[in-house]
Amino acid sequence: MTMNDEYDFSRTRRNPYTAQLKQAVIIPLDADSAACFQTLAEELHTTTEALIHQYLQDCVKQQRKPQHHWT
Q1: Up-side HSE of residue 12: CA atoms within 13 Å toward CB?
Q2: What is the Cα–Cα distance from 3 to 67, expressed in whole angstroms?
Q3: Cα–Cα distance for residue pair 7/4, rounded to 1 Å
Q4: In terms of Cα–Cα distance, which of 37, 71, 32, 70 is closest to 54?
Q5: pTM
Q6: Residue 48 · residue 37 · CB < 8 Å
Q7: What is the pLDDT of residues 10-63, one digit of tens each?
Q8: Could you tell me if residue 67 is left (phi over 0), alpha (psi between -120 and 50 degrees) or otherwise beta?
Q9: DSSP per-residue letters across the chain
């Protein structure tokens, strides 16, 4: 028996939610920022990645913009 015998893919369609899927991004953090998020994540019993993700989502929701001063 082959896979073609078991499954019929003729009526499949693309995932309509692909635009909503998470995208992996590498963000280099300085030691102080990383330590701050790690400590807070431990206190909240979550992962550092989940905490940073939640914080960034909150920034988007609140339409926060960073105060950046070029030197």
Answers
A1: 6
A2: 56
A3: 5
A4: 37
A5: 0.64
A6: yes
A7: 889 888 888 788 888 999 999 999 999 999 999 999 999 999 999 999 999 999
A8: beta
A9: --HHHH---TT----TTGGGS---------HHHHHHHHHHHHHTTS-HHHHHHHHHHHHHHTT--------
